[in-house]
Design goal:
This protein is of the alpha+beta class and about 190 residues long. The protein has a 6-stranded antiparallel sheet. The longest helix has 13 residues.
Length: about 190
């Protein structure tokens, strides 16, 4: 486990107040989203996780958007556990920022789309307005699958392709499900 951004704090709206920056491409599952919004609807994410991924997820700091305001940069910590399990959750961190602040992530996505001959992912990468990254290192807990679970849930909500930390082919929700299944996560 690696702890990072030690100064990360959250305000009364659940927005990150510490230094939010793009994670190194090789240390995160990166999503290339077409929407510019950094809003996280905790109830929707929980429902999507349980319904489609047999997961329990919970935002550690609930997000509120007073008067419709949404931060440009944000981070969250999310507790993740299998819906059928009784064990302690694993906590992961997610950061989100405009694509202009994460050009290395977009370049990795472009390379990942080329690796599969485009397959429509090249168009999706071209539409990217916001990057979401789920750190491969966990804040706490021992389920190494937790970051990919959050990436899969987020990809299904944000309609965003996933750039794997090891590089190579970009993939979508189906590819995430295949990887989770291979890792023993039953949906």
């Amino acid at each position: 486990m690696v702890h990072y951004a030690p100064g990360m704090k959250w305000d009364e709206s659940g927005w990150a107040t510490g230094d939010v920056a793009a994670l190194p491409v090789g240390e995160a599952w990166s999503l290339l989203a077409p929407e510019a919004s950094a809003a996280i609807d905790g109830a929707r994410w929980r429902h999507q996780a349980r319904t489609f991924f047999a997961a329990r997820i919970e935002l550690v700091h609930a997000k509120k958007y007073p008067d419709g305001a949404i931060p440009d940069l944000d981070a969250a910590e999310i507790d993740v556990a299998h819906a059928n399990g009784n064990g302690a959750p694993t906590r992961v961190r997610i950061v989100t920022l405009p694509v202009a602040r994460a050009l290395a992530v977009r370049a990795s996505g472009e390379a990942g789309a080329r690796a599969i001959g485009g397959a429509g992912f090249d168009v999706l990468v071209g539409r990217t307005r916001r990057v979401w990254q789920i750190a491969t290192s966990r804040v706490s807990g021992d389920d190494a699958r937790a970051p990919l679970v959050v990436a899969a849930v987020a990809a299904s909500i944000l309609l965003a392709p996933i750039v794997p930390p090891e590089g190579g082919a970009i993939f979508g929700v189906k590819g995430a499900r295949v990887r989770l299944s291979a890792a023993g996560w039953r949906t």
